[in-house]
């Protein structure tokens, strides 16, 4: 996460922004079934947990001492990430939203996603299909009846597949800016 | 508080005042009567394997460092410097030789002994450092790797405290030759709820599943619970629920973990592993306990074990209306790493802060606190009388046993709660 973004054409940058703005509009509009069509069916959807780590004295004076990566318990670690989901689990969550007895969403929360700082980090050689590695930041405002209103803040690390009809998400890792979770649920679509 | 404890809960604990869940005076009595006098869960030995390893923990609201000392023993100390009170440990976990207070650099061993006061060389009056260590938790004991601490020096041994719950806990633990371990740091989640409702939920309340969670849990799962479910109270406040599967049940129906989504999606390797665990179970835990397919467990006052999704949880109070809920994924210690990574999702996909089921639970726990804070409704205590008096001893299993819809697990909890608060009230 230290490299510069790769050079993009104005059109490529615009295409990326349009994709993320459209995705945010679908999610804020609670059109989760349409959102599912933006995912590859082999999607890996990950959210590491985050901890307050001990500073290593031997690394003092170096940026690595307080790197974000050290705080993450992700899928490759023997810790316990918050989410390690596939297409089926995401579908289960999406379909749940349209059941009358999904009580934590009934009445549904009002959300507003602001996505920014969109950077193309790499064009991965992907065999038949091109895959782009893209990072972006988000703030998600969340207001639910009977609960405090909260802001979710975090970063997405995506792998997008570039297809003729547009982008599809093949991998998404969500880095939340919380260790203690002072939020009603991490079960939203970020 | 206005009301005395005897008026908050009736003798049979079938009527529970809303104030039990919301009143600051009640909470103060809970601290004195329960949290100062019980065994409280600190963590698992797998979290602190080597000398110098430490994790943070809580006993009620008191911040604790649990560490393995240079002597190899487990120590628990209050995370607060004896000089000015700052926390001497800020990391959630790690390994160190010393905890150093940032303010004046008083430094302590991981066992809590004060070893250095940088300023003392400049003064004549030097304190006796042996009297100024971090406050020790006076009793620390472990059983099957589960470490507990108590502020009550006179408390009975941990084994006696757990009592016959060990029979039910071993129905799970003893299936694994190397025991279990915790994966990583706990998920820590702050909820606007009273600490007792998550506890009650995991102590025996499996009957909300088919209703609150009906968007996800099929009715058939509830039918199985109604047909085969058992609820047990060994000692008031301790309880277990499980399905006792028929002797001829197919292995895939009875095996631990097979019903959880991580295993279902996880492929042949994890499913074969779970079948092998089940195949060994009769030999390891006996034929009766091998048929147990666990649901929820509770250890008084605030530890829960969710066998079906294999998670340990602690409900740490933060006042009457807030709880810091900690949960860990637990896995067999000798399972291959690839299997452990699949098994942890049996917990995390359905429970914890992102859990598709627990988001419903946490929401109702918060709503219950609002309901418990309503003015002018004190003449409508909560009804806890379902199945009153129907629990019975069982020929083959310790404790009182009943169907899971019998709310005796909660009545026994509140009878113990009542007597402990009455004692604290009398002492005030």
Cα distance spanning the termini of chain A:
20 Å
- Largest interface, C-beta closer than 8 angstroms, per-chain residues: A-B, 41 and 45 residues
Structural class of chain B: alpha+beta
Order of neighbouring strands in the sheet with most strands of chain B: 12-18-17-16-15-14-13-21-20
Task: Tell me about this structure.
The complex is a heterodimer of chains A (190) and B (428). Chain A is 18% helix and 37% strand. Chain A is α+β, with helices and mostly antiparallel strands and 190 residues long. Chain A has a single domain (13-176), classed as Nuclear Transport Factor 2, Chain: A (Roll). In chain A, β5 and β6 (130-143) form a beta hairpin. With 428 residues, chain B is an alpha+beta fold. Chain B folds into 2 domains: 5-37 and 163-427, Naphthalene 1,2-dioxygenase Alpha Subunit, Chain A, domain 1 (Alpha-Beta Complex), CATH 3.90.380; 40-142, Rieske Iron-sulfur Protein, CATH 2.102.10.10. Chain B has 14 helices and 21 strands. Chain B has a 9-stranded antiparallel sheet with strand order 12-18-17-16-15-14-13-21-20, with helices on both faces. In chain B, strands 5-4-3-6 form a 4-stranded antiparallel sheet, with no helix packed on it. The model of chain B has no long low-confidence stretch (mean pLDDT 96). The A-B interface holds A 47, 49, 51-55, 73, 75, 77-86, 88-89, 92-93, 96, 99, 101-104, 146-148, 179-187 and B 90-96, 183-185, 187-190, 192, 212, 214-216, 261, 265, 324, 328-329, 337, 340-341, 344-345, 347-349, 352-356, 359-360, 362-364, 366-367, 370.
